[in-house]
């Protein structure tokens, strides 16, 4: 095993130990308590092991540097001659050349997150992002350094929303990040119908009626309902604030926290609006797909009641001759409860359903953490329009003053002051603000695109 392989093995081991530590800390934080004796002992043991691994890694990296200074280029002016020179090590010639393969991502979107971190740290430390990338990942991921050189030339000396150019970075890296973002939302997991922005689309809402007509008799007039949809780009935006200490931490666990802060900031709002009954706010947000609908009352909590509810949800689709390609959407709690329901013989009534979804009575079911409590939704994805996605724009600042409030008062179109008590200086608090903006809009193609039950409690014992 050469030095590079040893470094890789120890780095993976360190990441594993750090992940175990993080899991312990997250567990006690979630439960709102401090570590018990066994957890504290395990945490301390992991800290000791990580320290020893770090010391060994430092030794190996020093040896790697020494080895690199002694390397001799391959000789010869042709590929054949260069290849022959590699074998000369046995007689004191040049050593064999080892190509350092680019490291794979440890998690989805890691390389894109590293681009953001390099840009933020360049601004924080007043050095070139290229230098940050070279120092941290030059040996393990040289391709990433080349992307930084090509897309972020000039260093972090710009002003304003200087991080916005990250949207044009290497499509592979951005694509991995966006794939992770999309997997986090029900909105992006459903096969909604994509349409161009700013184009009015006229469609028919409901079927026209035809008639048998006797000879010489008047033909009854058929009435069909029509509607039009015009989706102008709106935007979902969020600001996540992270400490500068976290940005400086180069371990994969810290990078994952930064990535998750970017994703969770926007993913939560998208689903909460998409799957709501909220009305549209002109120029700000679209109406939720449940807006204007009257919820169906659940038949109850038992297996037979689930089947009755599915029939009730299907009824309006069948009445509109629009009952193909339907999908269920519900909460993770209800999805798991459905999967655990058993009949009198002890067999699972709806096998294959988990907290993340599955298949219910022949139709796909998607579950998410941002679905309204008790909501059990049936929809036709192809009857819900969304504008073509334009990606994600990320901007970064460590000088901005952020109004850290869920209902900020600041505005520039009609100048309004901010709430001083909630105003936080990134400079003063040694923090960095990361802003995520995603153009988005959606609308139902027809009223019969969605039906839902708003108080489902499947598997819960009835009073």
- How many structurally independent domains? 3
What is the level 1 CATH name of the largest domain? Alpha Beta
Quaternary form: single chain
Radius of gyration: 29 Å
What is the count of helical runs? 12
List the helices and strands in order: HHHHHHHHEEEEHHHEHEEEEEEEEEE
Biggest β-sheet strands, sense, barrel: 5 strands, mixed
C-alpha geometry: globular
Low-confidence stretches: 85-102, 152-172
Mean pLDDT: 76
| CATH fold call of the largest domain | phage-related protein like fold
Can you describe this structure?
The protein has about 475 residues and is of the alpha+beta class. The chain contains twelve helices and 15 strands. The strands form five sheets. Strands 6-7-5-8-15 form a five-stranded mixed beta sheet. A three-stranded mixed beta sheet has the order 1-9-14, with no helix packed on it. Helix 5 packs antiparallel against helix 6. The protein starts with a helix and ends in a 10-residue tail after the last strand.
Topology (elements, then pairings):
Layout: H1 3-30, H2 37-69, H3 79-86, H4 110-125, H5 129-137, H6 142-151, H7 171-183, H8 186-189, E1 193-195, E2 200-204, E3 226-230, E4 234-243, H9 244-248, H10 252-274, H11 303-319, E5 327-331, H12 332-340, E6 357-360, E7 363-368, E8 376-379, E9 384-387, E10 393-397, E11 401-403, E12 423-425, E13 431-440, E14 442-444, E15 450-453
Parallel strand pairs: 1-9, 5-7
Antiparallel strand pairs: 2-3, 4-13, 5-8, 6-7, 8-15, 9-14, 10-13, 11-12
């Amino acid at each position: 095993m050469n030095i590079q392989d040893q470094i890789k093995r120890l780095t993976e081991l360190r990441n594993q130990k750090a992940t175990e530590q993080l899991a312990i800390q997250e567990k006690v934080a979630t439960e709102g308590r401090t570590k018990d004796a066994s957890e504290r002992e395990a945490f301390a043991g992991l800290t000791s092991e990580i320290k020893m691994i770090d010391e060994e890694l430092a030794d190996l990296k020093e040896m790697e540097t020494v080895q690199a200074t002694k390397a001799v280029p391959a000789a010869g002016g042709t590929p054949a001659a260069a290849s022959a020179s590699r074998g000369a090590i046995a007689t004191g010639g040049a050593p064999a050349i080892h190509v350092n393969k680019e490291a794979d991502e440890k998690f989805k979107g890691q390389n894109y997150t590293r681009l953001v971190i390099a840009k933020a740290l360049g601004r924080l430390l007043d050095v070139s992002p290229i230098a940050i990338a070279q120092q941290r990942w030059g040996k393990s991921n040289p391709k990433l350094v080349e992307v930084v050189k090509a897309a972020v030339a000039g260093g972090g000396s710009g002003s304003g929303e200087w991080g916005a150019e990250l949207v044009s970075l290497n499509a592979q890296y951005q694509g991995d990040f966006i794939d992770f973002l999309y997997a986090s939302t029900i909105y992006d997991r459903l096969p909604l119908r994509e349409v161009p922005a700013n184009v009015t689309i006229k469609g028919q809402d409901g079927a026209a009626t035809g008639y048998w007509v006797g000879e010489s008799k008047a033909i009854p007039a058929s009435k069909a309902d029509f509607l039009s949809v015009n989706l102008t780009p709106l935007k979902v935006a969020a600001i996540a604030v992270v400490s500068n200490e976290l940005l400086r931490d180069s371990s994969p666990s810290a990078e994952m926290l930064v990535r998750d802060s970017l994703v969770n900031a926007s993913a939560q709002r998208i689903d909460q609006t998409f799957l709501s009954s909220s009305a549209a706010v002109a120029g700000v947000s679209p109406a939720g797909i449940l807006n204007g609908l009257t919820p169906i009352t659940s038949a109850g909590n038992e297996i037979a009641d689930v089947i009755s509810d599915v029939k009730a949800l299907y009824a309006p689709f069948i009445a509109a001759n629009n009952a193909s390609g339907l999908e269920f959407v519900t909460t993770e709690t209800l999805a798991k409860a459905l999967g655990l329901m058993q009949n009198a013989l002890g067999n699972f009534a709806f096998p294959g359903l988990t907290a993340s979804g599955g298949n219910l009575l022949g139709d796909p079911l998607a579950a998410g953490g941002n679905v309204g409590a008790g909501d059990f939704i049936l929809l036709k994805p192809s009857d819900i329009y969304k504008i073509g996605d334009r990606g994600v724009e990320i901007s970064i600042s460590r000088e901005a003053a952020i109004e850290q409030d869920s209902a900020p008062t600041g505005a520039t179109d009609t100048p309004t002051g901010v709430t001083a008590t909630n105003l936080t200086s990134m400079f003063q608090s040694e923090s960095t603000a990361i802003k995520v903006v995603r153009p988005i809009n959606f609308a139902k193609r027809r009223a019969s695109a969605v039906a839902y039950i708003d108080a489902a409690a499947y598997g819960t014992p009835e009073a």
